[in-house]
TrEMBL record:
Record-listed E.C. numbers: 3.6.1.23
InterPro entries per the UniProt record, alphabetical: dUTPase, dUTPase-like, dUTPase-like_sf, dUTPase_trimeric
Catalytic reaction annotation: dUTP + H2O = dUMP + diphosphate + H(+)
Keyword NAD assigned: no
Lineage: Bacteria, Pseudomonadati, Bacteroidota, Flavobacteriia, Flavobacteriales
Organism: Myroides pelagicus
Stated name of the protein: Deoxyuridine 5'-triphosphate nucleotidohydrolase
Length: 145
């Protein structure tokens, strides 16, 4: 298990896995007063959390399915990426895609965070790529089943 340093300046508990096989941990709004996001408006919601990720790791910030399905609240940059060299507060860019205003209260679960390993690559410019059965087929090219 990887250990990650975290500073928690919120009054909420640290993010945690809700079940033994959860991939993500819920992030909570850290607000002095509630924030209302109007229809088609967006806001950056602070969490009070600061991370020190090890080299080769990122934190992915993803929407919560319940907020998206029931309220039309999602993330603009989904998934958002927190790089290993970022030391600022985690902010969540929420957008309201519904027709109704949505109010976020302090402590409300607003997003989920997944910690993932990644590998940096080196480009190798070439003139030809290897052939595959799919070839250049794009969206919908593999048919429907």
């Amino acid at each position: 298990m990887t250990t990650i340093k975290i500073i928690n300046k919120s009054q909420h508990a640290l993010p945690n896995y809700e079940t033994a096989q959860s991939a993500g941990m819920d992030l909570r709004a850290n607000l002095e007063t509630s924030v209302t996001i109007g229809s088609l408006e967006r806001a950056i919601i602070p969490t009070g959390l600061y991370l020190e990720l090890p080299d080769g790791y990122e934190a992915q910030i993803r929407p919560r399915s319940g907020l998206a399905a029931k309220k039309g609240i999602t993330l603009l940059n989904s998934p958002g990426t927190i790089d290993a060299d970022y030391r600022g507060e985690i902010g969540v860019i929420l957008v309201n895609l519904s027709k109704e205003p949505f109010t976020i209260e302090n402590g409300e679960r607003i997003a989920q965070m997944v910690i993932a390993q990644y590998e940096q690559i080196e480009w190798k410019p070439v003139e030809i790529l290897s052939e595959t059965s799919r070839g250049e087929g794009g969206f919908g090219s593999t048919g429907h089943k």
